[in-house]
Amino acid sequence: MLSSNSPARPPALFLSHGAPPLVDSPTWVHQLENLAGELARPTAILIVSAHWEAAPLTIGSTDPRTPLTYDFGGFPEKYYRVQYRSPGAPDLARRVAAMMPDGEPIAHDPDRRLDHGAYVPMTVMYPEADIPVLQISLPTLDPERLLELGRRLKPLRDEGVLIIGSGFTTHGLPFLRDWRPEAAPPSWSAEFDAWAAERFAAGDVESLIRFRQTAPGMPYAHPTIEHFAPLFVALGASDDAEQRPDQVIDGFWMGLSKRSLVLA
C-alpha cells in the first residue's frame, strides 16, 4: 500500500496530438489545458508517440540539452523554432529498462529527444517544461504486444508517472481534400470516429484490437496504423483495459478525429 506521502496516482492517456499547427486551434488548446488542469501534477511523464517506431524498444535521450526532433516538413519556420527544455528523466529510463522481460533487448538513442507527437501536447499541458519527460519508441504495431507493454509499464503510475500514448483517432492524410482546420470530416473519418466512440463506451477491447478488420472507414481512416497503435499502450497501462474510459476530447480538426481518452 502507498504511504500518505506517495505521489498522486495519475491515469493513463490516449491523446490525438495533431500536427504542429494544432497549437493554433483555440478549441484544442482549451480542451487540452482543461484536461491538464484536472490532473494531479505528475512526478514524470512517459510518452509513446506514433512518430517513433523502432525495435527493439528504444529509450530516448535523458539529456535536456538534446535538441527536439522536428520530424515534419513543409510548415512555416516558426514551428521549427519551438523549444521544450523539460528535465531529462534518467531514473525513469532505468525503471523502464528494468521492467522489460529478462533477455529482451533494450536500445538507447541518446541523440533522439522528443518528437512533435510528444512535445506539441506538452507545450499546452505543461508549458513551463518543469516536469521530467521521457519518450520511448513503439517497438511493434501489434495491438496485443502493445497492450502487454502497457501492462509492464503500469506500475509506474503508482510512482506518479503519467503514461501517454500519443497518436490520432483518424489519420488518413493521403485522402484529405480540404485542408482547412475547420473542414468537415470525410465520411471515412466520421464513421471510424463514431465506431471508436461506441467501442470505447462499451469497453470492447477485442473489437479495438481488430480495428483493421472491423472498423468502418478502413483503410482510409488509417492507411498506416501507427497513429492508432499508441492507444493500446495506454489501454494496457490502465487498471482495466475493458473499462469505459472518459472521452474527454472529441470533434475534428482538418477532418481528422481528435477523440482522446483518460483511462483510470
Descriptive notes:
Residues 37-242 form the Extradiol ring-cleavage dioxygenase class III enzyme subunit B domain. Its cofactor is Zn(2+). InterPro entries: Extradiol_dOase_DODA, Xdiol_dOase_suB. Belongs to the DODA-type extradiol aromatic ring-opening dioxygenase family. GO terms for molecular function: ferrous iron binding; oxidoreductase activity, acting on single donors with incorporation of molecular oxygen, incorporation of two atoms of oxygen; zinc ion binding. This protein is an alpha/beta fold and 264 residues long. It has one domain: Protocatechuate 4,5-dioxygenase, Chain B (3-Layer(aba) Sandwich), CATH 3.40.830.10. Helices cover 29% and strands 17% of the residues. It is built from 8 helices and 10 strands. It has helices at 26-38, 90-99, 116-125, 143-153, 187-202, 205-209, 211-214, 230-237; strands spanning 12-16, 44-53, 58-59, 107-108, 133-138, 161-167, 246-249, 252-253, 256-257, 260-263. The strands form 3 sheets. The chain has a 6-stranded mixed beta sheet with strand order 5-2-6-1-10-7, with helices on both faces. A two-stranded parallel ribbon has the order 3-4. It is globular, with a radius of gyration of 17 Å.
Provide tags for this entry.
8 helices; Protocatechuate 4,5-dioxygenase, Chain B; 17% strand; 6-stranded mixed β-sheet; globular; 264 residues; 29% helix; alpha/beta; two-stranded parallel sheet; single chain
